[in-house]
From TrEMBL:
Belongs to the universal ribosomal protein uS19 family. It holds the Pfam family Ribosomal_S19. Residues 99-108 have a biased composition (Low complexity). It comes from Candidatus Nomurabacteria bacterium GW2011_GWE1_35_16. SUPFAM superfamilies: Ribosomal protein S19. One of its GO terms (biological process) is translation. One of its GO terms (molecular function) is rRNA binding. InterPro entries: Ribosomal_uS19, Ribosomal_uS19_bac-type, Ribosomal_uS19_CS, Ribosomal_uS19_SF. This is Small ribosomal subunit protein uS19. The keyword RNA-binding applies.
Length: 114
């Protein structure tokens, strides 16, 4: 559910104080736990360390992110790939193909040197 227009967007005052009067490129990572804070135009260019429950994930704010919340760019769940046994077999074949390709390329360069 969205916040009412009468109240306006929620922007954490402490974050605004941290970026007030500073230049985006000179300032380091600004750590925050405020995932619900809406990204405002003043935040563009800054790097925020948004806490995901375990670590601070670095988020570089761009113009496209204005209006979204900081928590949207710091995922809280780790994606574990799909596939299982069949996927492992495909990855093993792909890895073997890469190894053979690198060996053949190395052999070709060695013959050119002689």
């Amino acid at each position: 559910m969205t916040r009412s227009l009468k109240k306006g967007p929620y922007v954490d005052e402490r974050l605004l104080k941290k970026i007030a009067g500073k230049k985006p490129l000179e300032t380091g990572v600004i750590k925050t736990w405020s995932r619900a804070c809406v990204i405002s135009p003043e935040m563009v260019g800054f790097v925020f360390g948004v806490h995901n429950g375990k670590v601070h994930v670095e988020v570089l704010v761009s113009e496209d992110m204005v209006g979204h919340r900081l928590g949207e760019f710091s995922l809280t769940r780790k994606f574990v790939r799909h596939g299982g046994k069949m996927q492992k077999e495909l990855e093993a074949k792909k890895k073997e193909a890469e190894i053979t390709a690198s060996k053949s390329a190395k052999a070709a360069t060695d013959t050119k040197k002689k």
